[in-house]
Specification:
The protein is of the alpha+beta class. The protein has one domain. The chain is built from eleven helices and nine strands. The chain has a nine-stranded antiparallel β-sheet.
């Protein structure tokens, strides 16, 4: 199925999925009732904590000083017990039910939409592209200390195998303040979508295409600095040269991959996904990173399971990535690759 055949309106899909949406909506209402119970329990607990603490403080004022000081310390265990109880209630009644609903929604709705618009694709909400695959792209040189990936789509669009998922890669950095105390902070190296797609040409070398920050920031001087970098590949398209800096293991093969037509298509891809995209070609595959601070494919429990506006948003999100196969013309196989 070509992208132009994808249903433009989520209402079309909602009619196909009505039995699943009906069952999901019943579960959502039950979950909301349990969440409401949880908030009531937490509110009552907080009020009791405040009341007991006020009572203890009132009693201390009527006792001798030493005895009163001892009574004040009772406020601490009362507070700790209340906090622990509230945390348990929040996990059991609030976050727990939200997590369960989101998991079921993803499986039934997002998974169902995926099967309807692209039968050769599968959606696995709890899986993602591995940290090893992320590092092998060669697009980020910084070490990764914490990594998470989810919402994996994998399969074929026409002849082209494709997979993509959300990912968040972070680096742990430590420093010391003026008093010598150690501080730790987590710095995001990448957050967004990872895409690995079968390229329509066989090749043995590697090529990376990254935003050209040096030339766009420093102009002629930045271009001169780039000239000292190893494996730099210069191309004839001035717009492409202004947007990207290209490195490759083989100059001839880099031009075999980045034909003038492919350069124009990658510029269109940049307009579609933003200026910060990065591309790597190796093992006859194309790897694409699309920075995005939003958390895609996350349903809102406060919206009806039948809400086609939310479904339309998820449909747009997945279709925007499916579209790159068409944008890059990857189903055209005139280079003898099956």
């Amino acid at each position: 199925m070509s992208l132009s055949q994808f249903p433009a309106d989520a209402k079309v899909l909602a009619r196909e999925m009505k039995p699943a949406l009906d069952a999901l909506e019943q579960g959502r209402l039950k979950s909301l009732a349990r969440i409401s119970q949880g908030w009531k329990k937490i509110t009552i607990t907080v009020l009791i904590m405040i009341g007991v603490s006020v009572l203890i403080l009132a009693i201390t004022t009527s006792l001798a000083t030493s005895r009163g000081n001892e009574m004040v310390f009772l406020v601490i265990p009362v507070g700790l017990i209340g906090i622990i109880y509230c945390a348990v209630i929040h996990h059991k009644f609030i976050s727990g039910h939200k997590a369960i609903y989101c998991a079921v929604y993803k499986e039934k709705v997002i998974g169902g939409m995926t099967r309807l618009i692209q039968p050769d694709m599968t959606y696995s909400p709890d899986r993602g592209i591995s940290e090893k695959a992320f590092m092998e792209m060669g697009l980020y040189s910084t070490g990764i200390d914490r990594y998470h990936s989810e919402d994996l789509f994998a399969g074929k669009i026409g002849k082209t195998a494709i997979m993509f998922s959300e990912a968040h890669a972070e680096e742990k950095r430590t420093s010391r303040d003026s008093k010598g105390r150690k501080k730790t902070r987590w710095v995001t190296i990448f957050r967004g979508l990872l895409t690995i797609v079968d390229f329509n040409k066989n090749f043995r070398s590697w090529v990376t295409v990254k935003p050209d920050f040096a030339e766009s920031t420093f102009g002629w001087f930045g271009r001169k600095i780039q000239g000292f970098s190893a494996n730099l590949v210069r191309l004839e398209n001035p717009e492409f040269e202004d947007a990207f800096v290209v490195h490759g293991g083989d100059q001839v093969e880099a031009r075999y991959i980045l034909t003038p037509d492919m350069q124009d298509r990658l510029l269109d891809l940049r307009k579609w996904f933003g200026d910060d995209i990065r591309i790597a070609f190796h093992n006859s595959r194309m790897h694409l990173t699309i920075p995005n601070s939003d958390n895609w494919f996350e349903p809102n429990i406060n919206r009806s399971a039948h809400d086609t506006t939310q479904m339309q948003m998820f449909l747009r999100q997945m279709s925007s990535v499916f579209r790159l196969v068409e944008m890059l013309d990857l189903n055209t196989r005139i280079w003898t690759k099956d």
